Amino acid sequence: MATLRKAKILVDQLSETLQERKRIIEVIRLTPSENDNFELRQLVDRITRELGSLREQATNNDVNEYNELIDKYEKLLSGIDDESGLEISAYKVEKLTEKADTPKEVRFEEHKQMEMQPYDPFAEQTFKPYRDDEEEVTNNDPQDMPNHQMFAQHQQTMLEQDEELDHLHQSVQRQHSMGRAIHDELNDHIVLLDDLERQVDDSTFNLDRAQRRLNHFRKQAQENGSLVTIIVLTVILITLLVVLN
C-alpha cells in the first residue's frame, strides 16, 4: 500500500531527525533553534495525519504491519526532548484491531434468473489481435492504459519524488545548521588560541630581557673582580700593621 510506504518513510525521517537533534544537544552542546523545533512539530503532525488516514483505509492484512509502525512511532515520540515544546499526548495514534468478516449474501433471485437464461458460448468472448507475449506488451505499452490510470500513476510518481526532495531539503538544512554551529565553535577556539599565543610571546620577551641582564651582570663581575681583590687585600694589610704596632 502506497500510504503505508509513505508513513514508513516519514517515520524513518523522524528517527534520523531525532538522532541528529540528540547529537547537537549532547555532543556539540547547543540548543535547537526555533526553526528546528518548528520543523520537528510539522513532521510529527504530518506523520499523525498520515497514520490516521491509513487507519481508515487499512485492511485485516495490514493490521500487523500497521501496529508495528505505531509501536516504532510511539517509541520515537517518547524520546523527544522537552525543549521541542511538543505535547506528546496530542499525537498518540490508536492501534488497529482485525475487523470481523461480513457474511456473504446469497442472491437467490439473481441465481435463478441466470439458470433460466440460455447459455451462449460467444456472448462474453472478446477477440483481440494475436501477440507473442500479451502480458509483457500490456504492461510495457502505456498506450493500452486508460487515461485516468496513466494520470494516477503519474501523480503517484510525482508525489514520491516530492517526498524524496522534501527529505533531501530537510537533510541539507540540518547539515547547514550543524556546519554553522561547528564554524562558530571553531571561531571561539581560534580566539582562545590567539590569546594563548600572545601570552607565550610576552613570556618569551620577559625571559630574554632577564637573560640579557644576567649576562651583563656576569660580564661586569668578571671585569671588576681583580680590583675588588686588591682593595680587600690592602684593607687586610693595613689592619694587620695597625694591630702589630
Automatic annotation (TrEMBL):
CDD domains: SNARE_SYN8
Entry keyword Transmembrane helix: yes
Record-linked SMART domains: t_SNARE
Domain T-SNARE coiled-coil homology: 155-217
Gene3D superfamilies: 1.20.5.110
InterPro entries cross-referenced by the UniProt entry: T_SNARE_dom (IPR000727)
Keyword tags: Coiled coil, Membrane, Transmembrane, Transmembrane helix
Membrane-spanning segments: 225-244
Record keyword Hydrolase present: no
One Pfam family per UniProt: SNARE
Coiled-coil annotated residue ranges, if any: 56-83
Name of the protein described by the UniProt record: t-SNARE coiled-coil homology domain-containing protein
